[in-house]
Write a structure and sequence with these properties.
Blueprint (H helix, E strand, L loop, with lengths): L11 E3 L19 E3 L19 E3 L19 E3 L19 E3 L19 E3 L19 E3 L11 H10 L7 E3 L20 E3 L8 H4 L10 E3 L11 H8 L5 E2 L2 E2 L1 H7 L1
Parallel strand pairs: 1-2, 2-3, 3-4, 4-5, 5-6, 6-7, 7-8, 8-9, 9-10, 10-11
Antiparallel strand pairs: 11-12
Length: 264
């Protein structure tokens, strides 16, 4: 790693899949914009505070237990820390330009530490240990929310986020993935998600079609996944959903009758 320390004009450095255990020498690369350290054996991130031009940082599939050394990366727009050993979301306060945050396949139990990330558009905390949807009070630019494969029991607080965003004319949430959780009902206030296009609720515990009726006001909704919920066992499951939500193009993995006819 010391051999790159003199490359001060370097803008893109990829060290993907090299069995690297420790990072040294990158602190001098002050013009670096993209740094990829994925698929290594890094346990602790060095202080990257001098890399003030860094826009994209990939440290997925390593052995990190803590988020550190990122405090001054105010230009960073994309951060991938998926598949590590993280238990808490911390150390992100200075990432005021961050638009994408990928934290899937860790050991995170609660969503927190996002208050300063007002420009965040995409967040993934899939395959963790999250039990509640919370911590999004200030992420009013959010467009895509991925929380599948956790232990979430209630689909709550998302609508509250949208109501706040709507008051500021920045309602953008278009994708919600909460598949493979423990959700048993669809709250009526989900109808406030006027820009929602894709809703993934597969592999949960929704049993009543009355819950699906709460989605009727969502005129932009085009894709709905409810397979492997109790209501999907109904013989007329697809027929009922198509009648209830005629604007849908896709139910689970298959196009709706309307979509198929449109392609003919």
């Amino acid at each position: 790693m010391e051999s790159v320390a003199s490359l001060e004009k370097l803008e893109h450095l990829e060290l993907y899949d090299n069995q690297i255990q420790a990072i040294t020498g990158v602190q001098t690369l002050v013009n670096l914009q993209v740094l990829d350290l994925s698929f290594n054996e890094i346990r602790v991130l060095p202080d990257l505070s001098h890399l003030t031009k860094l826009k994209e940082l990939y440290v997925a599939n390593n052995k990190l237990k803590k988020i550190s050394g990122l405090e001054n990366l105010s230009a960073l727009t994309k951060l991938d820390l998926g598949a590590n050993r993280l238990r808490t979301i911390e150390g992100l306060d200075g990432l005021v330009q961050l638009e994408q945050l990928w934290l899937g396949k860790n050991k995170i139990t609660a969503i927190q530490g996002l208050d300063s990330l007002t420009k965040l558009k995409i967040i993934s905390v899939q395959s963790n240990r999250v039990v509640a949807i919370a911590g999004f009070a200030n992420t009013l630019s959010l467009e895509e929310l991925y929380l599948s494969h956790n232990g979430i029991e209630k689909l709550e607080n998302v609508a509250h986020l949208v109501r706040r965003a709507s008051a500021l004319s920045c309602t953008n949430l278009a994708v919600i993935d909460v598949g493979a959780n423990r959700i048993a009902s669809i709250p009526s206030d989900l109808a406030t998600l006027t820009q929602l296009e894709d809703l993934w609720l597969n592999d949960n515990q929704v049993a009543q079609f009355a819950d699906a009726e709460h989605l009727v006001p969502l005129a932009a909704l085009r894709t709905l996944y409810l397979e492997r919920n109790p209501l999907a066992a109904d013989f007329e499951y697809r027929k009922k959903l198509e009648a209830m939500l005629p604007e849908l193009d896709q139910i689970d993995a298959a196009p709706t009758t309307k979509a198929r006819q449109g392609r003919a």
